TrEMBL record:
Gene designation per UniProt: rfbD
Cofactor needs: Mg(2+)
Annotated coiled-coil segments of the chain: none
Source taxon at top rank: Bacteria
Pathway named in the protein's UniProt entry: Carbohydrate biosynthesis; dTDP-L-rhamnose biosynthesis
Keyword NADP: yes
Residues covered by the RmlD-like substrate binding domain: 1-283
Keywords, comma-separated and alphabetical: NADP, Oxidoreductase
Family label: Belongs to the dTDP-4-dehydrorhamnose reductase family.
Pfam families to which the protein is assigned, alphabetical: RmlD_sub_bind (PF04321)
Organism: Serratia rhizosphaerae
Gene Ontology MF term list: dTDP-4-dehydrorhamnose reductase activity
Record's catalysed reaction(s): dTDP-beta-L-rhamnose + NADP(+) = dTDP-4-dehydro-beta-L-rhamnose + NADPH + H(+)
Cofactor descriptive note: Binds 1 Mg(2+) ion per monomer.
Protein name stated in the entry: dTDP-4-dehydrorhamnose reductase
Length: 288
């Protein structure tokens, strides 16, 4: 299979390349190679490479910055995916588009299914939802994979931030009233590969971690594992704080657990995020 990958330098893009099945050919692109906001460039790239599938791992993900950077967020999260869908349709290729738990408002108390009503709280979530809609309108057979709380050995993420802070501080205040499921980017990559190998039916799929936690719970798990692996000499004290104690420009959904029943029914297990965390920490240790 020939796959055109966007966002190749990000967490998911890197993990996707690591897990590429034998015999698959990938053209790994990032913004410096392919500007997905330019339709003519996208069409030319697709016509040249003639992929069987396009995996869109590119996104504007700076949640707080998006509140002031609405135009750029919309260009990358809406116009870009629409351009990829148009090019995929023209070329007869499949499109996998990655989306987010931020399309929901977080007011639920049970895991969100793919058919639950969306209601983004901020610019980031709204542009991601608009991107989903644009993709589905152009190419209904597209696979839209929503995920959440992504971490990996690559780039910047919550795990790396917690490790950095833990080395300098004896105690940390971490938000305890937002709940969701951490997800290892390597598992997201594998889920996408599995969906493509199965030639799965188009539509929205939820994929996230197998255990729901708060950010403070997640932090405690990171510190415990990191201490066991001797990445940290001490485990910092975690003080549970509220969202109100830590105001941010963009409002976050307080509850964003995604139900993975649909993708589980296709034989794809949810992300065993604690195993993923252990793998990531070992990788970080080996690369110090």
């Amino acid at each position: 299979m020939k796959v055109l990958l966007t966002g190749a330098k990000g967490q998911l893009g890197n993990c996707f390349q690591d897990r590429l099945p034998a015999g698959w050919q990938v053209w790994a692109t990032d913004a410096d190679v392919l500007d997905i906001t330019d339709l003519e460039k996208v069409k030319a790239a697709v016509a040249e490479f003639q992929p069987d599938a396009i995996v869109n791992a590119a996104a504007y993900t700076a949640v707080d910055k998006a509140e002031q950077d609405r135009e750029l967020a919309a260009l990358i999260n809406v116009v870009g995916p629409k351009n990829l869908a148009l090019a995929a349709k023209e070329a007869g290729a499949r499109l996998v588009h990655v989306s987010t738990d931020y399309v929901f408002d977080g007011k639920a108390s049970v895991a969100y299914s793919e058919t639950d009503a969306t209601n983004p709280l901020g610019v980031y979530g709204q542009t991601k939802l608009d991107g989903e809609i644009a993709v589905a309108e152009v190419l209904p057979a597209s696979l839209i994979v929503r995920t959440a709380w992504v971490f990996s050995e690559y780039g910047n993420n919550f795990v790396k931030t917690m490790l950095r802070l833990a080395k300098d501080r004896d105690s940390l205040g971490i938000v305890a009233d937002q709940r969701g499921c951490p997800t290892y980017a390597g598992d997201i990559a594998q889920a996408i590969i599995d969906l493509l190998q199965q030639n799965a039916e188009g539509g929205v799929y939820h994929f996230c971690g197998d255990k729901e936690v708060s950010w403070s719970d997640f932090a405690k798990s990171i510190f415990t594992h990191a201490h066991q692996l001797q990445l940290l000499s001490k485990v910092p004290q975690v003080t549970e704080i509220t969202t109100a104690d830590y105001p941010t420009p963009a409002e976050r959904p307080q509850y964003s657990t995604l139900s993975c029943r649909k993708i589980n029914a296709a034989g794809i297990a949810s992300s065993a995020w604690e195993e993923g965390l252990h793998k990531v920490l070992i990788d970080i240790k080996n690369n110090q």
